[in-house]
Design brief:
Blueprint (H helix, E strand, L loop, with lengths): L4 E5 L3 H13 L3 E5 L2 H10 L4 E5 L7 H10 L6 E5 L4 H9 L4 E4 L4 H28 L10 H14 L5 E4 L6 H10 L8 E5 L8 H6 L1 E3 L2 E3 L2 H4 L4 E5 L6 H13 L1 E3 L6 E3 L3 E6 L3 H6 L5 H7 L2 E4 L10 H15 L6 E2 L1 H8 L6 H15 L4 E2 L1 H8 L9 H4 L7 H19 L4 H8 L3 H10 L11
Parallel strand pairs: 1-2, 1-3, 3-4, 4-5, 6-13, 6-14, 7-10, 10-13, 15-16
Antiparallel strand pairs: 8-9, 11-12
Helix pairs in contact: 6-7, 13-15, 14-16
């Protein structure tokens, strides 16, 4: 906490100098600004952990600047300072998001105590967020098979470094879980874990989402800035267009970028974990993915195994998701019979762990008695036949090109979820983790009627 970056904003040079000396003596890194223009510029290009902000300044007053930063979505703690203090001013500052308020003439002890409390409070806020994320099923590797033990060992080794990682695997195999575990076990675990699903963002909006924007004097922070000091998880990296790939490569090489509509560089410090279910080497050969970006991202490759390769973990996964859904979503508890578990263990799982989670959730929602029977599982699986190798469930996909196989799988996968949701597109979008407008485009491209499943 003592090595935090502090910005002092005050139109009196002597106060800036004094606070800089005192804070640096306490091992803080300090920037100063004597007006709002310099303050804005510093916040735009540097990572700031705490702002000491004067209320009365000649160009733009501190309250206005505070409102501006909060409107932009910045959550950096701000402590206000004023020599013309009043209860009304203090209340207004707190109401608009300031952490605290210090009156002038400044008490050095008060400044240091307030600064430390503000940083500690922010640290606790981030830790609470991290703990809430850790409780999500997306942050837990479940299973005792050799495959999962090897994956845990690989993650433990890689997490200690700051190397970038490319996670590959089939849809629903747990690539996001791998990314979250890498972050939780890394030296950056106290920083933010920011998850960006590129497949769920319209292509024209990806650059704004990643790098933020500046328009009409309003600054909106992108995911890079939000992840500064932590980990940025770029899911479905293969769905990014070539123009955005070029911008991303530049940002990765220089650790800085320019917001959309902006003119000044913003410096960031992030670890990149990317994921894809595509064959990026083939995408490079076909000119759909930049070769230099591929090698930049693929420093350490990790594969999330398909569930059919560790089906002995199915009972543990069923137990984990059952308990989680009962606790977090208040669904009724139901025990899975031995016959039901055996059937699930032998299923091909083309949709992997995500398919299993959705199946467990559906069986708990239906609540047909205290025990889930084998017959009920057969009914829930529908026309998906179980097999010993998983190859029957994949049909003739092995004879197709990767792109055609992917399209056929996506079509069957989305048709399955539409039927299960009774044609409710919003429910499907939430279930499969994709933006509704993007889902409509995907359905149209695959020739699927959004009304599928509404009949009957």
């Amino acid at each position: 906490m003592s090595d935090a970056n502090v910005l002092v904003v005050d139109d009196e040079p002597e106060i800036c100098r004094l606070l800089k000396e005192i804070l640096e003596d306490e091992n803080f890194s300090v920037d100063t600004a004597e007006n709002a223009t310099v303050a804005r510029d510093t916040v735009r290009r540097s990572h700031i952990d705490l702002v000491l902000l004067d209320i009365w300044m000649p160009d733009v007053d501190g309250i206005t600047l505070l409102k501006e930063w909060k409107t932009e979505g910045r959550d950096t703690p701000v402590v206000m300072m004023s020599g013309h203090g009043s209860i009304e001013t203090a209340v207004e500052a707190i109401r608009f998001g300031a952490y605290d308020y210090i009156e002038k003439p400044l008490s050095i002890t008060k400044v240091l105590v307030t600064a430390r409390h503000a940083l500690q409070n922010d640290l606790l806020r981030k830790e609470n967020l991290r703990l809430r994320q850790h409780l999500e099923p997306a942050s837990t590797l479940v299973g005792r098979s050799d495959v999962m033990e090897q994956l845990r060992e690989q993650i433990a080794l890689v997490a200690k470094t700051d190397s970038w990682v490319l996670v590959t695997g089939e849809p629903g195999s747990g690539k996001g879980v791998v990314a979250r575990c890498l972050h939780d076990q890394s030296p950056r675990h106290e920083g933010s874990f920011v998850d960006v699903s590129l497949a769920a963002i319209p292509p024209q909006n990806i650059a704004v989402q990643l790098f933020g924007s500046e328009e009409g004097g309003i600054i909106r922070s992108g995911r890079f800035e939000q992840a500064s000091g932590g980990t940025l998880f770029l899911d479905e990296i293969g769905d990014m267009d070539l123009e955005t790939q070029a911008k991303l490569l530049s940002a990765l090489e220089e650790n800085k970028f320019i917001r959309v509509g902006g003119s000044q560089y913003v410096e960031v410090d992030v670890r990149i974990v990317a994921a894809t279910n595509q064959d990026l080497e083939r995408a490079v050969q076909e000119g759909r993915f930049r070769e230099d970006l591929y090698y930049r991202l693929n420093v350490v490759p990790i594969e999330a195994p398909p569930l059919r390769d560790h089906r002995e973990d199915v009972p543990d996964l069923v137990s984990f998701y059952s308990n989680w859904l009962v606790e977090k979503e208040r669904l009724p508890y139901r025990k899975f019979s031995t016959g039901a578990l055996n059937l699930l263990r032998n299923h091909g799982w083309p949709g992997n762990v995500r398919e299993l989670k959705n199946l467990v959730q559906r069986l708990l929602i239906l609540n047909r008695g205290e025990e889930v029977s084998r017959e009920e599982v057969e009914l829930a699986l529908g026309s998906s036949k179980t097999n010993g190798t998983g190859e029957d469930a994949m049909g003739s996909l092995y004879d197709l090109t990767l792109r055609d196989a992917r399209d056929r799988f996506e079509k069957a996968y989305l048709e399955f979820h539409l039927r299960q949701a009774g044609g409710n597109v919003s429910e499907v979008a939430q279930s499969v983790g994709i933006e509704r407008t993007h889902l409509y485009r995907k359905l149209k491209s695959l020739g699927i009627s959004p009304k599928l499943g509404k009949e009957g």
